[in-house]
Amino acid sequence: MKVLSEDRTRILFEKLSKYIGVNVKLLIDRPDGTYCFREKKDRVYYISERLLQLAQTVNPDHLVSAGTCFGKFTKTNKFRLHITALTYIAPYASYKIWVKPSAEQQFLYGHHVLKSGLGRITENTPKHQGVVIYTMSDIPIGFGITSRSTAECRHADPLANIAFHQADIGEYIRSEDTLM
Amino acid sequence: MGRKAKFDETKKVKKGPGRKARKQPDPIFRKELHVLPKFNQCSRGLSHRQKQRAARRLKKKAQLVEKKKAAKQAKKNVNQEEKKEMSEDDISNDEEVKGGFTDENKEWLKLKKPTKTKSKVEKPVSESDEESGSELDSGSGKEDSDDNEEVEEDNEKESGGKENYKVGKLDDLFEDSDNENAGENGLESDDDAPKMAYDSDSSEGDGKDGDDKEDDDMLPIEKANLKLKKKQKLNQKLADEEMQLNIAKQDVFAFPTEEELQNPTSLQDIHQRIKDIVTVLGDFNRLKQEGKSRCEYTELLLKDLCTYYSYNEFLMEILMQIFPVQELVEFLEASEMSRPVTIRTNSLKTRRRDLAQALINRGVNLDPVGKWSKVGLVIYSSTVPIGATPEYLAGHYILQGASSFLPVMALAPQENERILDMCAAPGGKASHIAAIMKNTGALFANDANKDRTKAVVGNFHRLGVVNAVVCNYDGRQFPNVIKGFDRVLLDAPCTGTGVIAKDPSVKTTKDQKDIQRCFNLQRQLLLAAIDCCNAKSSTGGYIVYSTCSILPEENEWVVNHALKRRNVKLVPTGLDFGTEGFVKYRHHRFHPSLKLTRRFYPHTHNMDGFFVAKLKKFSNVIPEPFKDEDDEEEVDGEKVATENGDASTSEEKDDQTNKTNGPLKRPAPTDTKEPQKKKKAKEDKSDETEEKAEVSVEGKKKKNKKNKQKGTANEAQEKTSNVNENLNIDKTDETGKAQNEKQQNLSKDSTNSGNTQSPKKKGKKNKKNKNKQPNPTIVSKNEQNVTEKVQLEVSKKLKNKMKKKKKIGQINNKNKNKETKSAKPIQKFKTKNKS
Description:
CATH architecture of the largest domain in chain A: Roll
Largest sheet of chain A: 6 strands, mixed
Region (Disordered) (chain B): 1-217, 626-835
CATH class of the largest domain in chain A: Alpha Beta
Largest sheet of chain B: 9 strands, mixed
Distance between the termini of chain B: 61 Å
Structural class of chain A: alpha+beta
Oligomer: heterodimer
CATH architecture of the domain at 403-617 in chain B: 3-Layer(aba) Sandwich
Organism (chain B): Papilio xuthus (Asian swallowtail butterfly)
Family (chain B): Belongs to the class I-like SAM-binding methyltransferase superfamily. RsmB/NOP family.
Protein name (chain B): Putative ribosomal RNA methyltransferase NOP2
Coiled coil (chain B): 221-251
């Protein structure tokens, strides 16, 4: 558990702000105690200071995880957001896409969101914006990046991509080993 | 949850679409239960009123009989006079006679009983009616309350009887005799009241007569009713007889011959035999075959069960010790069936009602798990894979056996506590804890297996648990890492005898060694868990120990061990169902508070076999390890044995325990001489010590030690004289001497280390020999203090000790001989290693 370097912090926050915009600062200033980002084996954990102190008593070799894993830095020093961050990202998301029940399963298997599966979309979503994907019953099921803005969506072909797949909750099963 | 008996057979439960999972069949009730209602009909037929009436009836009957006798006497006299006149009156007059009476009679008859005729008119039943031929009601008034009928019948009979014989005395003889018959019938029928109503039917001649006469007046439906009643009665009779026959037949179970046993038969035959043996064992005295002992039956049963359910004999033997045979078969049967799939709602993300609705929309057939849980749901059938629905992936629920809720419910975590789950993988219980804590406080989830911790992490993230630290330690080392938890949950690894339905390999793979390995690990884990807990916590200080095994070795015995070794006590688990833990099991006698633990069985609770115990820690002090002898030394012996890799088999263990219990008394007579010897020797010793105490102050410490060691050496020597096992004791002597030399060589500065050792050794010895000494720790401390105090005190104390030794040596020498023999060398080796 070490403090993130300046550089990596910047990369992390850039990535996060793609999805939740200015709400990033809400992750840091919380009413229920201070939270911080810590790095362990390139993985970034979001953890409260109080829990961190307890976790530090555990030998790093034996520590598997503490708090919530947000994602990991790749070897090319880019930050990849994991689906495990959904718990914190979803409430703060500013742009959302709802998919139809018929397209849920498609997305959970790792496919992109097509126009035919699009149920709803937040007004004036720009192009290439990070979004959180919801089911019609308002269950967050993953992240994506829009390939078209809301206006463009209206006139898109039924088979055209609306959002690129980034992460989905199907990964808990599909890639349980690599995720953690 | 739970099977639903089809009490209402008319209502048929519709099966939903989709593949049908294998379900437990409806419960089968034992024969006795089916038979019961019939007995009840017979035995419980009489109400209070009915009894009263019966009593009254009897009274009246008695009166009637008396009157009859008197009347008969009178009749005889009168008859002879009047017979001739009467014979002239023919049967054609009969009806007249019956309707009214001949003129002469009319007068005095009416005078006698005007009231009774009235009742007769109102209520026409049975014989009198047949004769009078007045409108018959008995058929149509089928549901006339029998009681009324009976009573009035009585009146009638009385009146009828009187009337009839009076008529008879006027009329023909035939009529008279007939009436008398009827009167007798009435008497008979009175004896068993419930039959009364149909009595006329039961007596053949009467009934037929009645029928013939009634035929004219009865409606067809009434006739049919009468017939039906007759038939029913007959059937009932036959059924009763048959049942008696069956009962008589049941006890015919011939013990199979050896040839039959050697030739393998079909599984069905074996199954039948199992059933038979179980019934025989249920009522052994009555049903046994002459010359066969219970032992033979149980052995045969054991073999049959092993073949039928494919268990190994070892496990089956243990199971037979846990359950009575009837229950055992139920347990084995239940262990074949898989339990219903249950899920736990993740209260961090959703509510049970919402989840149930969402799943029903996906075509899942479910029900709440029971009143005891607010988060459990049972899945009966599902059209979608229940472990891959979007709700599952979104962390709204987790697949978890119903029994896994129990330890967490027993733990009852509070918000803002620090809680440890020692064996957490795959994280079901730990996430349940987090959900109850509402993600506050801190949760440590530990598991010894690194691969399995990944599942914990995965589940935690899926379920949205954010207050958790997942780590990978051997649970036994955890107290070295972090302590001071408010609550600790230990779901210890076990043999899994409670979840045979899930993993049938348990049936054949487990043996004594596995069990021993398990419970040794469990004991260590439980002690570690207790050490991790903080007794001073304002809200907690609780430890919950649970296993999915039903063997007492892994449950009660482990808890019992912890009760002795740590400052903990058992508290109620807070689970309002489940059976109490064992206090006695075979030769073991556990602490009485083990009643507070809870056991769950597949056949009674329809969940996996499970054990839950809740402990409260009341002090952080760890008591000196050797507090109690019997259990501890046994355990130590076993531990060492397992460490050495030569675990003793069950028989060996039994032998050990027998050694401690059984043969103790046998060598007693030979030992009786020894204590006296010892006494003398010790007196000598005490004299010596006194002398030495007088000698000098400076050499005090050394001599003190010397004395002790001498004492031990002497004891050992005595034992050599007692026992033939020279080898062991030689070793002990050697070690003792070696220590002597060492300690003599030690300078005064280094005596501290010697001090620390010797009291311990002494403590051990004392504890073996002194049963009555309450607190060994104090003694050892005293010894340390003594070395720094004045000479006199030393000598006094020494004297006291010697006295104590003497006393206890007398009492215990015979008892402890064997134990000490086995245990001493081991301890000596340990001390040697330390030094």
